[in-house]
Amino acid sequence: MAAMIHLYTWKTSNGRKASIMLEELGVPYEVHPIDINAGAQFEPEFLKISPNNRIPAIVDPNGPGGRPLSVFESGAILIYLAEKYESPLLPADPRARITVIQWLMWQMGGVGPMFGQTHHFNRFAPEDVPYAKKRYTDETRRLYGVMDRRLAEAEFLGGHDYSIADIATFPWTVRYEWQDIDFADFPHVKRWFQAIAARPAVKKGLEVPA
After folding, report:
1. DSSP for residue 114
2. What is the pLDDT of residues 95-152, one digit of tens each?
3. Other C-beta atoms within 10 Å of 3: how many?
4. Please, which residues have CB within 8 angstroms of residue 130's CB and are 6 or more apart in sequence?
5. How many whole angstroms separate alpha carbon 55 and alpha carbon 31?
6. Closest to 208 in 3D by CA, of 11, 68, 35
7. Which class for 95: exposed (0-12), middle (13-18), buried (19 or more C-beta within 10 A)?
8. What is the pTM of this model?
9. Alpha carbon distances (Å) from 148 to 73, 129, 179, 184
10. What is the pLDDT of residues 48-92, one digit of tens each?
11. How far lies 80's CA from each of 22, 35, 153, in Å?
12. Taking a C-beta distance cutoff of 8 angstroms, is the pair 2, 25 a contact?
């Protein structure tokens, strides 16, 4: 029996990327909840796995060379798992592969940071900061526009097939109401969102940790 992947995660958009990926791959994994509200991400044992004190992170007991390997950063986790299990979620064809990777990087460099700031200033900031709320909400809306134009020409972000680019981006769009986004303004995103939300693995991954 293959050794299980150990997933260190919490109920956030970034955390859900890894659990959705593992569910899509159908591989066994063990969940280790890291309660970021209680500061568990700063515990020394977790920092050995994720030195940037962020979730998600994984430990593969059977990494390259048969030795344990820890991986942090959600994008790196998605790439690692896709390659380990030779999944079509990261295509082998060079042109298709770089298309998926560039949209994954778009999520990592744009969607995640900007949507995250929108969530913070719209819902969690201890004081009202109108300038910040407008700045990040406007940028979030711009990124939805980029996504909508892309999805007008392709079924998924990476092209014709569902990929790690979609897995990375989808959990951030689940909180569209926190972002003051109306999907009626982005019909291609709405079509994409509904298709991905209906996937059984996505439904399961969104509930991790239970």
Report:
1. H
2. 999 999 999 999 999 999 999 999 999 999 999 999 999 999 999 999 999 999 999 9
3. 13
4. none
5. 12
6. 11
7. exposed
8. 0.96
9. 26, 28, 16, 11
10. 999 999 999 999 999 999 999 999 999 999 999 999 999 999 999
11. 11, 24, 28
12. no
* 99 Cα distance to chain centroid: 17
Inter-residue contact 118 to 179 (CB < 8 Å): yes
Task: Check: CB of residue 90 under 8 Å from CB of residue 155.
Answer: no
Residue found by looking up tokens 């990375």 in the block? 168
Query: Is 210 exposed, middle or buried (CB count within 10 Å of its CB: 0-12, 13-18, 19+)?
Result: exposed
What tokens appear for 39 in the block?
A: 């500061």
Phi, psi of 69 (to 5 degrees): -140, 130
The helix-helix angle for 13-25 and 112-119 (nearest 10°) equals 130
Give 32's strand partners. Answer: 8
Nearest in space to 137 (alpha carbons), one of 166, 103, 178: 178
* CB neighbourhood size of 58 (10 A): 26
Token couple for 13: 């958009």
Work out the end-to-end distance of the chain between its first and last CA atoms, rounded to an integer number of angstroms: 25
- Residue identified by tokens 């949209």 is 103
- Residue closest to 140 by CA, chosen among 180, 174, 196: 180
> Treating both helix axes as pointing N-terminal to C-terminal, what angle do 112-119 and 130-153 enclose, rounded to 10 degrees?
140
| DSSP SS3 for 33 | strand
